[in-house]
């Protein structure tokens, strides 16, 4: 099942309500498409007041029971090499920026449901395609 939303960056609550509160969410899109901005909205929806930033260099940020990964530079192999792949099996919500089909396939192999959000920038709006694997 796939849902498509075309929203302004100030309308993110509409999509956040459709996303799971636990498990793994994979965010895909070009640079500056809004992956970290969506993550900020998700974290805020839990009532967590945190300075959410892209974990490009740290690879993972933790906001209470929400784990935010960025595997742009290191890919899926980097996630494994840094010992973070096992974290995806822990309770909580795991948001992975730049996740790819290898990650989705492996998580499915272990019985983990994955929500995939593909983000496309369109002028001052974003198109969010939400699907579940």
What does this protein look like?
There is one protein chain. With about 130 residues, the chain is an alpha/beta fold. It has a single domain (about 1-130), classed as P-loop containing nucleotide triphosphate hydrolases (Rossmann fold, 3-Layer(aba) Sandwich). It is about 25% helix and about 35% strand. It has 4 helices and 7 strands, in the order E-H-E-H-E-E-H-E-H-E-E. Strands 1-7-6-2-5-4-3 form a 7-stranded mixed beta sheet. The longest helix has 11 residues, at about 35-45. The chain is globular. The chain starts with a strand and ends with a strand. The relative contact order is 0.27. This is tRNA threonylcarbamoyladenosine biosynthesis protein TsaE. Keywords: ATP-binding, Cytoplasm, Magnesium, Metal-binding, Nucleotide-binding, Transferase, tRNA processing. It comes from Campylobacter hyointestinalis subsp. hyointestinalis. Its main location: cytoplasm.
